[in-house]
Write a structure and sequence with these properties.
Number of domains: 2
Order of helices and strands: HHHHHHHH
Distance between the termini: 27 Å
Radius of gyration: 18 Å
Oligomer: single chain
Number of helices: 8
């Protein structure tokens, strides 16, 4: 239920529709008509866009250090949540993207749009 509400908030934000506009959610769910992508797809493209941004930074830059930072200590019991870097690595492997592709901005943008 909470995920659906969060997704609807995201859809409203992508469409530029405020809650006070009183636009019904059932009409927003017809995304093909609105011409917007799935929420998960938009998030995936944004992760890959920021991944490229981090790769472009110098090694001494704080953004690059944050990307490579490993948090110490034990992880909680059970199946741990995936880290941001694990999610991005899986996305890159699934779509056959590599770091060399990320160095060319125009080709990277077209590659992640095709995701």
């Amino acid at each position: 239920m909470a995920l659906q509400q969060a997704e609807m908030r995201m859809v409203r934000w992508m469409c530029g529709i405020k809650v006070k506009d009183r636009f019904p959610s059932r009409e927003l769910r017809e995304r093909e008509r609105l011409g917007i992508d799935e929420t998960a797809l938009v998030l995936q493209q944004n992760w890959l866009r920021w991944y490229r941004h981090g790769l472009q930074k110098q090694d001494a830059d704080w953004v690059k250090k944050c990307m490579e930072y490993e948090v110490g200590g034990p992880r909680p019991r059970g199946r741990p949540n995936m880290t941001w870097s694990e999610v991005v690595e899986n996305d890159c492997q699934a779509h056959k993207l590599n770091k060399e592709d990320a160095m060319d901005r125009s080709s990277w943008r077209t590659l992640i749009k095709d995701v």
